[in-house]
Amino acid sequence: MESDIAQIKLLLWAILGLQILFVVANIACRVLGCGKGAQPDYNELVARGKYDQILSYTKKRLDTHPHDTDALYFRAKALQAMGLTDSAKEFVKRLGESDQRLALVCREWLEALDSGPQST
Fold first, then answer.
1. What is the pLDDT of residue 30?
2. Domain presence at residue 120
């Protein structure tokens, strides 16, 4: 009986140690910025008007993840901002097809693009 209790105590201390290790690792990762740079901050790039960078990042992402909704959305948004509405339409259509929850919004976006000036 005493050996069972000793084993339980040992396991509890091991679990506590692992929890502390995970908390410390999480804090260290946040401080050191682990995972940053894995995906660009598209909103910041849009705010700064860095549409060429958005197109570069989204092209790379869509080559490997063709249904990535963020990449599709921001690529369409960048193309539209650059006045390339016909090119933007392709990505708006793909966005609506890749996520059915966005289909209605994408149809409205396409209608807005159709009513505006056209370019390639």
1. 80
2. no
pTM here is 0.66
Alpha carbons 104 and 110: distance in angstroms, whole number: 10
User: Could you list the residue range(s) of the whole structural domain that residue 57 is in?
Assistant: 42-115
User: Do 69 and 106 fall into the same domain?
Assistant: yes
| Per-position b or e across 51-62, b if 16+ CB within 10 A of its CB | beebbebbeebb
User: Which residues in the chain land under pLDDT 50?
Assistant: none
Q: Which residue has the tokens 């960078």?
A: 53
Domain count, the chain: 2
Please give the pLDDT value at position 96: 94
